[in-house]
Amino acid sequence: MSEPQSLDILQELLAIPSVTGDEEAIAAYVERFCREFLPAGQVIRSGNAIIALQPSLNPAATETIVLAGHTDTVISPNNFTGKIHEGRLYGLGSSDMKAGDAVMMEIIRAYGRQWAGAYHLVHVLYDAEEGPYEENGLGPVLEEHGHLFRQALLAICPEPTDNLVQVGCLGTIHATVTFKGVRAHSARPWLGDNAIYQSTGYLNALAQLQPVDHTFGQLLYREVMHATTTTTNNTKNTIPDTFAININYRFAPGKSIEQACREIEELAFAHGAASVDFTDLSPAGDVNLENPALQKLIAISGQPPQSKQAWTDVARFSLFGLDAVNFGPGQGSMAHKENEYVEIAMVREYERMLLEFLGERG
Amino acid sequence: MSEPQSLDILQELLAIPSVTGDEEAIAAYVERFCREFLPAGQVIRSGNAIIALQPSLNPAATETIVLAGHTDTVISPNNFTGKIHEGRLYGLGSSDMKAGDAVMMEIIRAYGRQWAGAYHLVHVLYDAEEGPYEENGLGPVLEEHGHLFRQALLAICPEPTDNLVQVGCLGTIHATVTFKGVRAHSARPWLGDNAIYQSTGYLNALAQLQPVDHTFGQLLYREVMHATTTTTNNTKNTIPDTFAININYRFAPGKSIEQACREIEELAFAHGAASVDFTDLSPAGDVNLENPALQKLIAISGQPPQSKQAWTDVARFSLFGLDAVNFGPGQGSMAHKENEYVEIAMVREYERMLLEFLGERG
């Protein structure tokens, strides 16, 4: 075993800009990297996603673990890209989540075709996670190549979790709830019917909603439904005939998208909405505390697991039928922040824990 | 006296595009036209507005009448510019209000320095009436050259009124009423405070407002206050800390802008608004039924006067201290419409009535 090179790999990844929608260069780099250390048949390119199969030589290894990291970033200024200062390595995407990607790639580099851990590994390094649900690069990977790991024991997404294991996640739906009126010139409003005013009963009902707590063991998930943006389709001299409210509903693991949609519709139609249109439908991620691999990972992390209130691709794996968790070396508080960095000691610790979990102490 | 040439002049005006903000060419045409028939010292160019003084040779004439027409138009398609069909002359701005402008210019052409009517005339042909209050070309004219007609008996704006006399007009104010909350991620709304929900009491109060009728003689003006547009300054994954509502208040003649502003503030602050910012302040136009020149004009029009529910530059003259009315040959229903036209017979009739009023039967 050579010295771990995760940081060198991370430096390479940080040097390649990869804002969502512009991942061609980083995908080419990752593909070339994987092909250097794995046989050609074990590296698959799918759009700007790369799937790298690293089976174990260990005859006791029967189960598969998926490691799935996105390579894209959200645009944000960083004045110190590649710089190390006080134990922190700076760069856009360092915490979210190129540090996790780098550890995955270091496992590919260090062990290559000699991997002999407790599990077969499937690495997925994919694009467009930070964009809309429908454009996420993990979607086509699951659709076209999911058969390669459908029976996997667990998928680990190295989202920035400060080296904690985050289990499950809320689903999220955006819906446009529209109230209708009759258009008129604002000098003659009695000829019209103001659509904004139709909505007050609904807004009051939303305002009175309290978070609905769902617990799984010690884990708490809070269901919340809120109006976030509003639109009228008129000039300021016109009584609007349309008032459209964007509703964001975050719903707990265990609830289906269909059920969540019904709940949005019921509240809206009970208060006079004319229509409800769903614009984003992302499922909840299941909480699978009984999964033995997950129990082992939690034990190795040395900390109680956490619930995930925001949405992540863990939910996409859930929908696919695979247990998944977030577990990564980045800091959650650094995600999408100016001058993002990652703590180098956290990356080292993550690498150690991940290899221990995978049955290989390096 | 030669044959009236109003229609020829109108054709010339229709052939010169003059959408608001692009009145250089039409101003040059009008200036050249006026200089052809009036002494140099009686034609003043002020930006893209032209003031043409046409004093009367009649020794009995002591009073002044202002004729003030805007030359700009609101952009709208017209497939028949300059065409005459079934007694209608087509063109953008034909009704609103180049037909009125053409009659003014015909008086300048036909009588020139030989005008001997009952009044001295001041013609104002100005730009940017269809844009924001602050950019209206009549503003600088009143400010810089208003001394030329400050004592005038009446100002007539030939806005399209179907040859009826329209008296006074409502004032109009736009205000941004803002409700404040605390921003948060929409997955953790309990850390925030949704600004939209703060507004429901106010929206309900607005919804319950009824038009407040103000009558002057037989003339009815209806005060109305309505929310017309809304804005949040967030993404759809954010609980908004700001909800801004555009309020349009149309207030009756006799009420000051200051009083109208106070009424907006009182209702908003009584229902928890954080701030009220005024974005457009246009005064009401006074109703001056006792003005003898106005009485004479109404008699000549042969129809009862009408109130004006929408705002016009009559209000600007009011604020300047001059009685003013709308009286023009265009059709109100044609204003800002596709394939706008003017009825030629209406223009002829208008010309006859206006000259009778001015004490000159042509």
List strands and helices in order, with pairings:
The structure is a homodimer of 362-residue chains.
Chain A: H1 6-15, H2 24-37, E1 43-46, E2 49-54, E3 64-70, E4 84-85, E5 88-90, H3 94-111, E6 120-126, H4 138-145, E7 154-157, E8 166-167, E9 171-180, E10 184-185, H5 200-208, E11 212-216, E12 219-232, E13 238-239, E14 242-251, H6 257-270, E15 275-282, H7 292-301, E16 306-307, H8 314-320, E17 324-326, E18 341-343, H9 344-357
Parallel strand pairs in A: 3-6, 3-7, 7-17, 8-16
Antiparallel strand pairs in A: 1-2, 2-6, 4-5, 5-18, 8-17, 9-14, 9-15, 10-13, 11-12, 12-14
Helix pairs in contact in A: 1-3, 2-3, 3-9, 7-9
Structure description:
An 8-stranded mixed β-sheet of chain A has the order 1-2-6-3-7-17-8-16, with helices on both faces. In chain A, strands 11-12-14-9-15 form a 5-stranded antiparallel β-sheet. The first copy, chain A, has helices at 6-15, 24-37, 94-111, 138-145, 200-208, 257-270, 292-301, 314-320, 344-357; strands at residues 43-46, 49-54, 64-70, 84-85, 88-90, 120-126, 154-157, 166-167, 171-180, 184-185, 212-216, 219-232, 238-239, 242-251, 275-282, 306-307, 324-326, 341-343. In chain A, 29% of the residues lie in helices and 26% in strands. The N and C termini of chain A lie close together (7 Å). With 362 residues, chain A is an alpha+beta fold. Chain A has 2 domains: 6-168 and 285-357, 3-Layer(aba) Sandwich (Aminopeptidase); 171-282, Alpha-Beta Plaits (2-Layer Sandwich), CATH 3.30.70. The first copy, chain A, contains 9 helices and 18 strands. In chain A, a hairpin with a 2-residue loop joins strand 11 and strand 12. The interface between A and B is large, with 43 and 43 residues.
